[in-house]
Amino acid sequence: MNDEQNTPVSENTTDATPASAPVAPAPRAPRNAPRGRRPVRGGAGGDRRPSRGGDRKREPRERAEFDQRTILIRRVARVMAGGRRFSFSAAIAAGDRKGRVGIGIGKGGDTALAIEKALRDAKKNMITVRMTKTMSIAHDVMAKTSSGIVAIRPSPERGIVAGSAVKIVLELAGIKDVTAKVLSPSKNKLNIARATIKALSSLKK
User: Fold this and answer.
1) What is the rounded CA–CA span in Å between residue 44 and residue 41?
2) How far apart are the first and last CA of the chain?
3) In terms of Cα–Cα distance, which of 173, 103, 113 is closest to 141?
4) Tag placement on the chain: N or C end, fewer CB within 10 Å?
5) Is the residue at 98 inside a domain?
6) CB 178 within 8 A of CB 171
7) pLDDT at 15 over 70
8) CA 18, CA 31: separation in Å to the nearest integer?
9) What pTM did the predictor assign?
10) What is the pLDDT of residue 25?
11) Digit-coded pLDDT (tens) for 134-160
12) Closest to 107 measured CA to CA, from 150, 151, 77
């Protein structure tokens, strides 16, 4: 027999790829490429499921009984064995704009806690101002607290003519048509507010 007949012939020799040939990696999609949308729930109609509590209406929040204004916020320090510890002190004026007003002081590790404590203290120290039918005062008053001296007098049809912490206290009390003046050289807002409260508490009908 001839040698050509005994020699095995491999099929597809031209299409065979050597095992050591490198394979090109598949191309990656760009990072910013848009992704396909998720299928819409609810069948062919495309109606989405109603959200939980969708039919419920939000109830309006109840208005607070007292309005509040910040008079003073400062950082204070206390000396301890390991060093100084810092906290915050807040002075708050609160009133219902119908004749009741008060001032409170609170201290805390942060401003929110100090304001909350000061508001509770202001509610405890409320006074009721004696006003006329026109929401004004009947006569002139003057008071002194520490270094703060304040004078208040009625002023028909002029609104509130005042400054500093006096105006804050008068607005929260609901007083109208008055003129106030700070007579003391000190501009400490807390002492001025306390003097205003003292003057309003001395009103007589």
Assistant:
1) 9
2) 143
3) 173
4) N
5) yes
6) no
7) no
8) 35
9) 0.67
10) 64
11) 999 999 999 999 999 999 999 998 899
12) 77
Rounded to the nearest angstrom, the gap between the alpha carbon of residue 183 and the centroid of all alpha carbons in its chain is 35
Phi, psi of 48 (to 5 degrees): -80, 160
Domain residue limits at 93 = 67-127
Q: How many domains does the chain have?
A: 2
Q: Residue 17: pLDDT above 50?
A: no
Strand order in the sheet with 67-80: 67-80, 83-95, 100-108, 127-128
What one-character DSSP code corresponds to residue 11?
Answer: T
Residue 103 sits in a domain of what CATH number? 3.30.160.20
Contacts of 93 (CB under 8 A, 6+ apart): 68, 69, 71, 101, 102, 103, 122, 165, 168, 169, 172, 193
In this structure, is residue 158 part of a structural domain? yes
Nearest by Cα to 95 from 121, 71, 66, 72: 66
